[in-house]
Amino acid sequence: MRCDVITIFPEIFNAYFSLKIFERALQSGIVGIKVHNLRDYTFDRHKTVDDYPYGGGPGMVLKPEPFFRAVKAIRADGVETCTIMLSPQGKPFDQETALALSKEKRRLLFICGRYEGIDERVKDALVEREVSIGDYILTGGELAALVIIDSVVRLVPGALGDEHSADEESFSWGILDYPHYTRPPEYEGLKVPETLLSGNHGEIARWRRKEALRRTSSRRPELLKRAPLTEEDDRLLLEIKEEEKDEPDQCS
Ligand code: JAH
């Protein structure tokens, strides 16, 4: 998996990817991340990346020329590249998109904006996919690019060790996670559910699935319409509904 980034804040990426968990992936060559400073592609001695918006209004817009020069310089090695821009106007990012990107043979090139935006011609001429991580405004695209790269890299086989099981992840696909507990069995009067201490693996699996469905049904009911559910899941959801009649949900 090869990722390149164009940003005016390379430190943000270098700080994140120097974390221990990424060490192995980067050293082994399974993953390669190269961060490019947009300012290295400016012309003037002040290294100007922004200018006033045509038509007026508040804030500054990132100039097109440094992006064009940066993208051309990166693509000059002939490596097939998928150029991605982060913005609230993009297609909503989800786990399906993360999986598709993790299987992408081409290099991923992320273009990050700051200020009020990037000159539209950058998108028109250079960008293949515009992606949004959610309906909120960030100061810039850097955090969104990090979110995407993080979620993609962990899906690359062997990248982060292999501490996440593919079986578990496909089983829980599309619904919320079940509650997790570790020792001690009781802390400040708060008990670990009996079932988890029982050693009965069938019963534990059923309990976890039910609690995952309970959370999903209560907090994200729209997910249940898309998630791959079994007949056993339908039975568990009916049980949950019956239980709600006895003690209604206290959650907000
Ligand atoms: C904000 C440039 N969908 C998340 C997202 C992505 C990028 C930006 N905001 C939100 C952004 C200001 C300038 C990009």
Can you give a write-up of this model?
This protein has helices spanning 10-17, 20-28, 64-75, 95-102, 120-126, 142-153, 166-171, 194-197, 201-219, 231-246, and strands spanning 2-7, 32-37, 50-51, 61-62, 81-92, 107-111, 129-132, 186-187, 190-191. The chain is elongated. It contains 10 helices and 9 strands. It is an alpha/beta fold. The strands form 3 sheets. The chain has a 5-stranded parallel β-sheet with strand order 2-1-6-5-7, with helices on both faces. A hairpin with a 2-residue loop joins β8 (186-187) and β9. α9 packs across α10. (6-phenylpyridin-3-yl)methanamine binds at residues 86-88, 113-114, 117, 132-134, 137-138, 140-141, 144.
Outline:
The chain has 252 residues and is an alpha/beta fold. The chain has ten helices and nine strands. The protein has helices at 10-17, 20-28, 64-75, 95-102, 120-126, 142-153, 166-171, 194-197, 201-219, 231-246, and strands at 2-7, 32-37, 50-51, 61-62, 81-92, 107-111, 129-132, 186-187, 190-191.
Q: Approximately how much helix is present in the residues?
A: 40-55%
Q: How widely separated are the two ends?
A: 41 Å
What form results from the Cα inertia axes?
elongated
Structural class by helix and strand composition? alpha/beta
Q: What strand order characterises the main sheet?
A: 2-1-6-5-7
What is the tally of helical segments?
10
Specify Rg, calculated over alpha carbons.
23 Å
Number of strands: 9
List all distinct small molecules, including ions and cofactors, that are bound in this structure.
Answer: (6-phenylpyridin-3-yl)methanamine
Percentage beta strand = 15-25%
- Sheet with most strands: 5 strands, parallel
Order of helices and strands: EHHEEEHEHEHEHHEEHHH
Low-confidence stretches: none
- Whole-number mean pLDDT: 95
